[in-house]
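User: Can you fold this complex?
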Amino acid sequence: MSEPTPLITADLVATDLVAADRDAATRQLIDLLAAAGRVTDADGFHADVRAREAQMATGMPGGIGLPHARSEHVTVPSLAVGRIPAGVDFGAPDGPATLIFLIAAPASGDAAHLRILAALARRLVHESFRSSLLAAGSADEIAAIITREVVVK
Amino acid sequence: MKFVGVSSCPTGIAHTYMAAEALEQAAKDAGHEMEVETQGSAGTIPLDPQTIADADGVVFAADLPVRDRERFEGKPIIDIGVKKAVHDPIGVMAAAVAAVEEARANPAATGGGSTTTVASPATKVTADASVGNKIRQWLMTGVSYMIPFVAAGGILIALGFLFGGDGVVAKLYGGTFEGVTYTSVMPSFDGGFASGNDIFDLLRQAGIPGLLFLLGKAAFFFLVPILSGFIAFAIADRPGLVPGIVGGLLAAVIGAGFLGGLASGFVAGGIAFYLTRLKVPKGVRGVMPVVVIPLISTIVIGVVMLLAIGKPIAAAQSWLTDWLSGLTGTSGILLGILLGLMMAFDMGGPVNKVAYTFATGGLTTAIAAGDMAGPALQIMAAVMAAGMTPPLGLALATAIRGKLFTAAERENGLACWLLGLSFITEGAIPFAAANPLRVIPALMAGSAVTGGLVMAVHATVEAPHGGIWVIALVGKPVLYLLAIVIGTVITAAVTIALKGAQARKLARTDQLQSVSV
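Assistant: Here's the predicted assembly.
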C-alpha cells in the first residue's frame, strides 16, 4: 500500500509571478514541475500545453487561467499554481487572469489517478475556493488548502 | 425542474468537470435538480436510466459527440459547447428552463415531449478494467446475448427430430427418405414463403416437426451475427452494432463459423470505436453515429470478411477435404480420432464442416451402392458421436462444478443435455466463444476419444443426423453409447481442470492487485 503522490506541494506554488504573457507564465510553472521531477521534458510538455491552448483558450471567468495537457512527458498527475498580481491575459472574456493553474496529466493515466484531477476541476468552479487561494499568505498555505479541498468523492 | 446533462471536452481533464460542477451549482441555486454525466478521461459513470426518465430537460455541454445520445430522445435538449457552460452556467440553465417550458407549450415540436427513453442493452464492460479483463468482458457480452438463441434454436431443432424422426430433414429440404422422394418445401429466408412454397405445403409434407425444425434453424441462423454484433457493441457502443452484425452474418455465409464471428466482432468493434473517437467538424458530428460510422465500418468489415477471411477459408477447406480423402485405407481408429478433433474444433465452422461433409458424402455413396458393411457407416457413427460429446460434456461440467460458470452458462448447460443428445454440436458454442483457449481443447479431447472408440468397436449408423433419436439405426448401440459416455466424461473432466486452474490463477491476481492498491 503506497501513499499516492500528492497533487501539489509547496514547491509547485509561485506566489508572485511576473510574466509578460500567458506563454511565459505557463513556462515558469512548467519549470517548477520539471524541477520537482514530475515533468521529464519541459520543452515537450510546453509544446503539448500550447497545442491544447491553441484549440480553445483556457481563461475562466473570475481571473483564472487554466493551461493543461495530457502528455507523455508527465510522470504523475500534478498541479502547479501561480499568482500573478499584475495579471496576464488567458483569453477570458472578463479580463486578465491573476490565478493560474497548470494541470499536468500523464498520457496513460489510469482512471483512479485522473479522478483527482476531475475533483480539482470541480472545485475550481467554486468562488470560495478561488478566493481562499488568492487570500492565502504563503505557498505552504496554498498547497495545504488544495490538498484539503480536492478530495475524490 | 429536473435536468440531466452530459459534458465533455477535447482533453477530458478540466472543462468536462468544471462544466458539470458549474451547471449543477447553477441549477441548484435556481431551485432545480441536475445531474451531469462527465464523459471525460476519468471514465464515464452513466446516468441512471431512471434519472434520465425523470428529467424534464437535457443540457449537452459537449465538445465531443455525446455517447449514447439516444438515451435522451424525446426530451427538450439544449446543445451548447462546453465553454459556454463554464463561462455562463446561469444563462445556460435559464435557456434550459425556457426550452422545457417551450416544449410543454408546444409538445409536437420536440417529438411529443414524451418521457419515453430508449433502453440501451446492457454490457458487462467496466470502464477501468485491464486489457485482459476487457477482452473477457467483450466476449462475455457477445456470448450472453447469443445464449438464448442457442437454447431456443437448439431445443426447437431437437423437438423437430424428437417428433419428426430422421425423416424431417428430407421432408423439409428435399431428398429421399424410406424410398419416398421429396421436393424441398424450405422457404428461402430472403423471399419468405413467396418462392412457390407456402406454409401449407410445408405442413402437409413435414408437419409440425418440420415447422419446429425450420424455426430452430432460423434462430440458429443468428448465432454468429448476434455473437459478433454484441462483441462489437461492447467495444464501441451502438456504432459497433451494425458492422458487428453484418460482419457476423458474412462470417456465417462464408462458412467461417463462430471463430469467424469472434474475429469479425473484434475487428468491427475496433473499427467503429476508432471512428467514434475521430474529431470531426461540428456540422458532421450529428450524422456520424447514424450514417457515417455504420456506412464506413460496414464497408471495411465486409471487405475484410469476404476477401481476407472468406477466400483463405474456402481454400483451406478444399485442401483439408482432399487430404481426408487421401487418408482412406489408413487405420480406422486414427481416422476416428482425427474426425473427432475436427468435429469439436469449431462446432459448425469450416473444419467441422469438412469432417461432417466427408462422413455424409461417404454415407450417401455407400447407401446408394448398397454397401452397408464398408467403413462409411462407421465413419458416420464416429462423426455423429464425436459431435454429441461437446454439449454433453459441458452439460456434465456445469452440473458438477457450477461455480466455474456464469448463471447464463449454467442454464445453457441444462439445454445442452438435449442438444448433445440430438447431435446439435452448436450447443457448446457459447462456452467455447467465452473461453476458446480452455474450452476448445477440452472438447477436442473428449471427441477424439469418442471418435476413435467408435471406429475401434465398429459401431455404425445409417443416418447423417438425429443423435440419440436415430438410435434404432445404430449398429452395436451399447458400445456406441458407451463411447459417447466416455468422451462426455473426458470433456467434462478436462473442462473443469482447465477452467479451475484459470479461476485459481485469477483469484490470486485479484488478491495481489487489491494488496498493491
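Chain A has a mean pLDDT of 85. The domain at 10-149 of chain A is CATH 3.40.930.10 (Mannitol-specific EII; Chain A).
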